[in-house]
Amino acid sequence: MVAPPRELAAPARTWTTPEALPLPQQKERTELIEQWHQRCSALGLTRVERPDFEPLMRGDLAVARERNQRLFTHAAPVMEMLFEQIVDTESMIVLADVSGTILHSVGDDRFLQRADKVALTPGVNWAEHSKGTNAIGTALFEEAPTVVHGGEHFIHANHFLTCSAAPIFDPRGNMLGVLDVTGDQRSYHRHTMGLVRMSARMIENQWLSDDYGNRLRLHFHSRVEFIGTLLEGIIVVGADGKILGANRSALDQLDMSSAALRMHSLTSLFGTTAPAVFDHFRSPLPTPMTLCLSNGRQFHVSARFNGPQRSMAMEPRSAPVVDSAGLRSGAGAEPRLPAGVLAGATAHSADGTLFSGLHYLNTGDPQIGALIQKVQRVINRDIPLLILGETGTGKELLARAVHQDSNRARQPFVAVNCASIPESLIEAELFGYEDGAFTGARRKGAVGRIVQANGGTLFLDEIGDMPLALQARLLRVLQERQVTPLGSLKSIPVDIAVIGATHRKLRDMIEAGSFREDLYYRLNGLVVKLPALRERHDLDVVARRILLSDCPHGTPEISARVMALFKAYAWPGNVRQLANVLRTAAVMAAGEGQIEEHHLSDDFLEDARSGRAPSPPQVSMPIRVAPPVAEAMPMHFTEPLGERSAEPEAESGPAQATAEPATPRTLGEAEVELIRSTLAAANGNISVASKRLGISRNTIYRKLRWGK
Ligand SMILES: Nc1ncnc2c1ncn2[C@@H]1O[C@H](COP(=O)(O)OP(=O)(O)OP(=O)(O)O)[C@@H](O)[C@H]1O
Q: Transmembrane stretches, by residue range (predicted)?
């Protein structure tokens, strides 16, 4: 069972120290602990039990780890991240398997030594039957997040501990193991349980994506701003519309057990079908749809689909008509697949025609058409692709489409943004690291992004921002096709297709000595440049597609005056900015059938009418200095949790700077000033600032890193 009712029914019972509880709850807590302790006595345990120092034989531990390799692979990076949060707090993080055997621990050295004294160490079993009441064993027994604090431990020797543990479940509701944070009881913190629960959810969500990467996944929440956060529900839908699995938040929100949910289909749950969902999300732009339970509860839903779902249930239809923009029309139209939300998905029509990811990007512009033809020739030829283009021109979208159209479509597409990962972490992130590669803690190694991409495609976004020292290592990997993790002597062979992208002029960087020429020649098997939106001749088709995707029912037209304004505008944020402007306008024009000038936001209108636009992003040489924003972000959270919640949906268009910059010396400095002041006006909310400026979040990170 994924969402044990007891956790929902009485959270305080397991989350708060007895001292902090109001009297009635203290009584309830005491009764509960007594019940747990009676259970242990009935098992024949005594409170003066000596710690059992006899862990599994070395070989047995290896077998247990082998058996739980997948759990470990998903949990290890999360444990590392969790460790960053609790470092120097006299505590440790423990991963145990479903039998209670500790597989792995990470922690402060001093506390690990104290934990050793009570056998809280890999190889030892901490199920209730061997260690009495303790968070690991009791969470496994109760199948619920559990805190066991100080004297609540059954065995006296464990009274110095405070432990918070959360079970980990797979998407079908089977328990996989438990994640626990244990510390000195004097350093108990009530937020620890929250951190552990969130971390367990991260592991569960990764497990789900891994299991069902090639299935349609619906991400939903009753509040649209929570989609994309750990609070979102995820359900996996089979080709026939049946629900195959779900994460814990989905079960909480739908108020159903895993088994009950898996009896449902999209039709019985939401009154819709998989083809209808595909149809809604066919465009490259991710806009949530609204689905309703039979009791009237509404959810905002977005869809993810990473691979070809060749057997997607579709009613037989006549051969689709495909226009020059790749749009199909007529009563026999197929569900059209988006290249963005559905990540460059590929589908087969009833007549067997293949509609590829690249096909959907071909919207009638001759430059784009020629580019797609070129790219199609090198697919599956082991020729590296380098995509150039300004921010928001669709470089990542193109890379995903190439992956989807290749033989590697069923393997991972791993995107690494070299600009948004702090320099100090890029190496570990890319190449991975071995046990003991870092000092100060007993830490297990982690698999790097290159190895994760094995068999599939590695997308190196903003490759021009990779530090020089790492360029040499990357070059070696590309030449030798093997990776050596940090601190390891062993190399791991990898089979990857590499796609690089940058908005920088790499040749200029080579001349300036900031980009290696040999790496450039390794990456540039085929170089394609995506045109800026202002240079394209298909703005009207792209705009219509975006609107079709945003408002499939009642798509507004664009008036001739607005289209004329659009065509004269410089679009410094390219397609991303166009989509933001249209999204707002469509909301303003709801029910009127046509977008007119008065539906556009004032600041955009002012810029567009005056022929003024924020200057297109400047290409400057990177000077790496201490990054004020990006390095403050932990490795796996480039978007701080909760940040999206403050984000108004309908923000768009470039903003006016709220303060005069202090006489900047160069264009680059002016840009940074503008970004800083916009960020300040948006109360530091990067998403809001990026929408106002019409540039990506990554561009903001990057610019601020160079702005000092
Ligand atoms: N041809 C297109 N049709 C519809 N939407 C598009 C198209 N090209 C790009 N977009 C949308 O524009 C946004 C930016 O696209 P993408 O992230 O691929 O650009 P990028 O060039 O990689 O940006 P950056 O350099 O800032 O990372 C996305 O929301 C994407 O869905």
A: none
